[in-house]
Amino acid sequence: MEESTRVTHMGNISPVIDRLETALSSGNIPPPYDRWGGRLLSHLTKPVQVVVTGLPGSGKTALLEMLSGHSVSTGDLSPPIMELSYGERQRTVIERRDGSVQEIAGALKDIDLPADVVRARQEIPTPRLACQDFIEIGLTGNPAENGSVLDQIVRRADIVLWCSQDFNDAEQQLWAMAPDHIKDHSFLVLTKADKQMMRGVLPGIMSRLEPVVAEEFLGMCPVATIQGITAQTSGAAVDDALWASSGGQRLMNLVLNEVRQGRAADIDQGRVFLERLSTQAPMAPDASAAPPSPAPAPHQTSGNEPVAAKTGALLSEAVDLLQKQAGQMLDSLDMSGELNSDAILNGCVEAVSSLGTLMDRIAPNNPAAQTVRDDLQDGEEMLVLFQLERGEDAALDAVTLLLQMRKELIEKAAG
Description:
Largest sheet: 9 strands, mixed
Mean pLDDT: 80
CATH class of the domain at 48-69 and 126-263: Alpha Beta
Low-confidence stretches: 1-12, 282-305
Number of helices: 16
Helix content: 55-70%
Strand order of the largest sheet: 4-3-5-2-6-1-7-8-9
CATH topology of the domain at 48-69 and 126-263: Rossmann fold
CATH superfamily of the domain at 48-69 and 126-263: P-loop containing nucleotide triphosphate hydrolases
InterPro entries: P-loop_NTPase (IPR027417)
Strand content: 5-15%
Number of strands: 9
Region (Disordered): 281-306
Protein name: Dynamin family protein
């Protein structure tokens, strides 16, 4: 499905997307901002990825059906990855082990899947899937394989719904490997809660898991999944009372709230990028006009010369600091041959923070220092954007940003 079609059905979530598209299509954005802007636009127009996972028999597929409002049961053969996504028409896309892809009109539940299927995507023309995809990625139960599956989940997910009936020690040890940025937007879903309640064990399970959830998840939701599905499919309209009592309504509200908050944060980062871009590549109609002549600088008395000298020395020190930090990260990459994107991003943030501390040694009313402080604030906001994206490209762009800030500091120090 074309992204432009998807964005239309997302309801034109913000004029920031239109502004960014216009800026990129103008062809006037200098590198590396053109590359950064393209990736940011792709991020803004991509639906939020809600991954449902858990051990075999934990009720993942039923939860997927409850959240989407559509049946995706595939019988005895379940693909390792099953996706529910918005589409202009109902169709199923199947990927096989050899990499071949087949598109079939109709619903996934009506298709005989090949034995070597590795991914199946059901596209449905429903507003419920306009802003987020629901993806089931199952854990095999084999500890040797679960770690690599969790890595795959972390790379893809914005929100994780971990399905379990008791979240045992093995599950806790596996989930402990997930990074905090995923844990902060994930929920433990206690499936088959109605059966647990009938056996009288649900309150005890929840009480036992409360301290674990406080450290490892954003929240915990007991859900009677089959009741939630029945509430949505048994009649012409949703049975509101059954939907609420099943726990499905609460879980759905929590997920949608995370989707909205995440999208709002993305839009804020889009504004930050556009504001930063406007200082680097003005796009107003008269942007090519000659800039106004600067006002004559006030005469500096001999009493002020030591202050100017101190400022110049600190700017030179700042240049050296950025060069050293960027060089260390690139040297580390050359030595290890592997790119630790999180470590590089954290190193860039640390460098900018140290630079801010250095600038605090200059008088607050010093014009040169204030200009650098403003640039630092812009740089910090750009680094937040890169941390949002994560990954190797974002890490390398963070280093590029440090080197660009170094170049600008050299010009200021020379001035």
